[in-house]
Amino acid sequence: MIYYAWQRLLLKTKAEVLYLAGKRYFVLIRGGKEVSVFTGRQPRQAALKAASRGYTDIRLRERGTNKIHIYKGSRKKVPAPFERPEWMSSTVWKPNVRKIGIQKIEKPKKKAVKKKAKKKKVKKKAKKSKKSKKKSSRKKSTKKRSKRRRR
Questions:
Q1: Cβ 51 vs Cβ 97: under 8 Å
Q2: The CATH number of 10-104 is which of 3.10.50, 3.30.450, 3.40.1440, 3.10.470?
Q3: How does residue 131 score in pLDDT terms, banded at 50, 70 and 90?
Q4: What is the pTM of this model?
Q5: Domain boundaries, given as residue ranges, for the chain
Q6: Which residues of 108-123 are buried (b: 16+ CB within 10 A; e: fewer)?
Q7: Under a CB-based contact definition with an 8 Å cutoff, are residues 59 and 68 in contact?
Q8: Nearest 5°: phi and psi at 41?
Q9: Measuring CA to CA, how many Å separate 98 from each of 14, 24, 59, 71?
Q10: Which residues in 31-132 belong to E strands, given as ranges?
């Protein structure tokens, strides 16, 4: 049996699909303004990066979606691992985050555009003769025929 790429994705677990998806971009929001961008496969990974830089109230919006992930973050100094590179300091910041929830952003509704009311043409009081009515009906019928031919 031959499996195509999309069929293989259907057989994968959710975690495996996220792994295949690659990195996602999350924008940090502070005071209603987008301050910086953090990357990660999951919002928690981006929140940990933000917490390690010292942010405590973390609100991350994923680019291309209308959700804001809300976290509480903290960090503390811990001794660096024994097998660290020479350039790394003896102490490092260890981040910790706790998810509070998700807030959905409502997209602004498009204002309904009012159609301009067509001005009613003032009918003349003078009545048209029967001949002129017949001529106008003939013109209409020829227009219909020409439209049919074009199709």
A1: yes
A2: 3.10.470
A3: low
A4: 0.57
A5: 10-104
A6: eeeeeeeeeeeeeeee
A7: yes
A8: -75, -25
A9: 22, 20, 12, 5
A10: 33-40, 57-62, 67-79, 91-104
